[in-house]
Design brief:
Layout (H helix, E strand, L loop, with lengths): L8 E5 L6 E2 L6 E2 L14 E5 L4 E4 L7 H6 L10 H5 L12 H28 L6 E3 L5 E4 H4 L7 H9 L12 H4 L18 E2 L1 E5 L9
Parallel strand pairs: 3-9
Antiparallel strand pairs: 1-4, 1-9, 2-8, 4-5, 6-7
Length: about 210
Amino acid sequence: MKDGGGETIWFGTVPDHLSVPWTKPQDLVLDETFPSESNRYSDGNFCFANGSIQYIQVEQGADPEALRAFFTIAGNDTGAMERLYPNGRPKLKSTSIWNANARMSSSNNAKQIALGFMNYQAAYRKLPSAIVFGPDGKPWHSWRVAVLPYLGDGEGSDLFKRYNFNAPWDDPSNEYVLTHMPSIFKDPVAPSKDPTHTKILLMTGPGTAFPNK
């Protein structure tokens, strides 16, 4: 990555209306619509390609071009963090003790997912594909399922063994896995209204770390 791991974001948290079933192969896309109401992240913890987690307030005066730069891997656009807030970094919103604990839990979840990515990369010498296509050429499986054995807990390994890779994510044979989403894919700060939905999404598309090829 020419921009460096500390300048490239892997994933973040989306608003509830953009949440998806956690086994569904669907994420955000870095195209001309990002960021917009139908294609954006919300304030929250972002995971960078070096494994670090940073809380970024993207909804308060952030420069959209600087934000976009975080998701390219070879744009030679370093220094995006300094450009993100042209009028100065906003102060963190006041928060209760519960919310502060929830943010910490969210950060820990992101660290576990980042570890899963790194363990997967160590095993296969590449990052997991955002989408695994089926024999019919359609999206069948998500990266969230692919990294399950590398998350370092028995829960993920058991779900991975139960998942039927010979059928798409929404096949009845995969309903058990869909309805048992691991806690690390949940948002402790603002949980999704649907317990099978996650708000943890990658940025995909040409020029990103997950080009879907």
